[in-house]
């Protein structure tokens, strides 16, 4: 997709949803970090159901440590891989208390050093909590980027690198939210709703005319 089309692509998504936000529920940077760690291989809806009660009780790393692994497990057992995730949440909470004064660091390297935190999770936290123009790539963004021809790539990292190179600076702060919402509600994995797509004419998906 050429630069003019990329700009138009995001202009249209922005016109449809001027103020996009994450659908994960959180209270502060720490609860956001926990929610994103829990969201790996899980839906936002499922994570929110589990964390509403958890975040009523726990909002800081210190409070999470008081809860302990068993306590966390009790709140998140409805989420896939909950045993590993509960252990990671306690481990990262301990590091935040011991090394960062109980605060979530505004630094990619520091975030990625935390248990259960990879490139995508760090990018989400940097974007949502701290306003960095990162573009974390999840399954929705990977699909939309490849299907539409916006930023094709064989891996999530490759797509992320290409998006960061192609997306105009003015769209970067909200780019990943627009793409997630587009993938979740319009350009769905099964049966994309091409008739209701605001970027249909820019998209190179060969089967769209049949939808």
Please describe the topology of this protein.
Layout: H1 3-16, H2 29-38, H3 44-57, H4 61-76, H5 82-100, H6 108-112, H7 119-130, H8 139-148, H9 156-166, H10 172-185
Give a brief outline of the structure.
This protein has ten helices and no strands. By secondary structure, the protein is mainly α. It is elongated.
How many domains? 2
Q: From the 3D structure, determine the CATH topology of the largest domain.
A: Endonuclease Iii, domain 2
- Low-confidence runs of at least 5 consecutive residues: none
Whole-number mean pLDDT = 95
Output the helix-strand order: HHHHHHHHHH
Q: What share of the residues does DSSP label as strand, in percent?
A: under 5%
- Tell how many strands the DSSP assignment holds: 0
- The portion of residues assigned to helices is 55-70%
Main β-sheet description: none
CATH architecture of the largest domain: Orthogonal Bundle
Q: What is the molecular shape?
A: elongated
Distance between the termini: 22 Å
CATH superfamily of the largest domain: Helix-hairpin-Helix base-excision DNA repair enzymes (C-terminal)
The top-level CATH class of the largest domain is Mainly Alpha
Which class best fits the helix and strand makeup? Answer: mainly alpha
Q: How many individual helices?
A: 10
What Rg is obtained from the alpha carbons, in whole angstroms?
18 Å
């Amino acid at each position: 997709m050429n630069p003019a089309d990329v700009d138009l692509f995001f202009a249209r998504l922005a016109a449809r949803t001027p103020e996009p936000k994450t659908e994960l529920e959180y209270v502060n940077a720490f609860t956001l970090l926990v929610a994103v760690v829990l969201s790996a291989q899980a839906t936002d809806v499922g994570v929110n159901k589990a964390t509403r009660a958890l975040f009523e009780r726990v909002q800081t790393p210190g409070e999470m440590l008081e809860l302990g692994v068993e306590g966390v497990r009790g709140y998140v057992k409805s989420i896939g891989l909950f045993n590993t995730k509960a252990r990671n949440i306690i481990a990262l909470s301990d590091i935040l208390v011991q090394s960062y004064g109980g605060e979530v660091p505004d630094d990619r390297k520091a975030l990625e050093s935390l248990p259960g935190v990879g490139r995508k999770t760090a990018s989400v936290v940097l974007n949502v909590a701290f306003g960095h123009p990162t573009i974390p790539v999840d399954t929705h963004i990977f699909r939309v980027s490849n299907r539409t021809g916006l930023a094709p790539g064989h891996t999530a990292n490759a797509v992320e690198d290409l998006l960061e190179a192609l997306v105009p600076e003015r769209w970067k702060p909200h780019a990943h939210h627009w793409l997630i919402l587009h993938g979740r509600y319009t350009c769905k994995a099964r049966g994309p709703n091409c008739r209701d797509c605001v970027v249909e004419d820019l998209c190179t998906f060969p089967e769209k005319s049949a939808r």
